[in-house]
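Entry 14. Structure prediction run on the chain below.
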Amino acid sequence: MLRFSVISVLVFYLMSFSASGQDFQVQKSDSIAKIEGEVYSIHVVDSKQTLFSIAKAYEVKLSRIAFDNPGVLDGLKLGQALKILKSAQGETRESEQPKDALELDGEYVLYTVPKQQTLYSISKEYNTTVSAILDANPELSEGLKVGSTIRVPVPKMLGESHTAKVEMVGLPDIVKRQVISSSKEFETRTPSKGSIALLLPLYLNQNDTIQARKLEEEPESVYERSEIGLAFYEGFLLALDSLKKLGHDVNLKVIDTENRPWKVQQLITQGALKDIDLIVGPLYGKVFSQVQKYAQMNCIPLVSPTLKGNDIVENNDYVLKLIPSEETMVYALGEYVSQSDSTNNMVLHYGAADEKSMLSRFRQGLEANGMKPANFPVANMYKSGKDSVRNALSLTSRNNLIILSNNEARLASLLRNMSNWTEEAYIVGYAPNAWQMFKNVEMDYFDHFRIHVPTPFFVNYEDLDVQFFVQKFRNTFQADPTTFAFRGYDLAMHLIPNLSGIIDQGPSYLESVQEKGLQSDFNWHRVANGGLENAAPRIVDYTGYQLKIATD
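Output returned:
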């Protein structure tokens, strides 16, 4: 099995005072913190110190400090504790780049280009992208010139505060009291023990080795049909490595399904799943059904990371379906909208059978949070028309329009005819998940109507934990994580710490556990006469042509 170094996710948020003054001699700190295997100097910001003067004193790159200390580009605070990686200290002294080549310019680092540098190498060094550098430096269309100074965007590491297990050596008491870390929930749990089987389409015969992606220089060398399985496996392994360091003792068995039912059946007959406590996969329906029967007969919880239809959980108490159905996501949309303080609400549909079903589930979501469906009057657009909707709009307060239809042709026409309404009225639209796949509805309408939709998977790349995961994944696999890498990571971080509870109490144990991952949230509910479905989609907002987590 591959071995990986731990993902360090500790961040310090300390006392808030304003800082000012000019650079002056910075005294390096003797305080040391060992954080999940990485050693850091802990520098407490003093009067007149700046980010540049601190970087200069420790001989580290500004981007290194910015990466390890989210928010520092917004300004330092008196008494703020910065963690500075010991192994990075002295790197600017050893490089060819002159010490005065870097300085802070708002959200950018001013970088003097040395010899033998490329835009790609600069982007990797500063954890940004080539396109972001080009956007900040239009003159680079003529090429990168040695000795010129360019602006390099440094990503702001913003996100919620977290908690994690830390070994601290020589820290001031004021720092110890205010350390916030990222896995507090694991500290209080008894470490899990058990066996997990991953059933993935890895196509090892075509790939020679499971490490093909990492060892080969050209990405084309990896068999195309194995990409999904490999990405999921890589994400799962990164999580497993971190969790093992927290004491979780899990034996992982990886089985290559190659998406061939006959091969899966042969493996089952040969006892490949004997003594397994939890099965994750297969990813595809035609091989999943083979494993589903075996899991039910042997009372083994079986997790589907990719299948959406509720047929896989029907009449099988042991199946767990990660992706919520359309009806479940509409229910969650009702729960979300019920929290709005708007008193001017309206539900629109065209009267089709599937739309009436969505209306029923939406109302159930409203009622789950104590909202009366009567507060959301319904308009059948097939009968009443758009004029009746316009006349019901408030011109002085917020209007929530819940549009429960997936009829793309009709909706394209409706939104086009309604688009000028947003100049007079403040409208916030809510729609089913399928709207994200529309091809004939202009994105302008998504922005004008501030469309919100539920979605099973969404990554907020401004989140600190996400950025650490992306960086760790890049360092380990020389590639960016795909949605399946995030999915594998999230499932491992969720299932492994709960494995003992699942073994002792069965899949129903997870109904008592609600957690948030990097891309997925987890809130399991049992469906009628069947297994468990994850009922925790994320609500995203298209306002400003930027898909983001909804906050209103």
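The chain has three domains: 1-95+163-182, 184-324+464-534, 327-455.
Filed with the rest of this week's runs.
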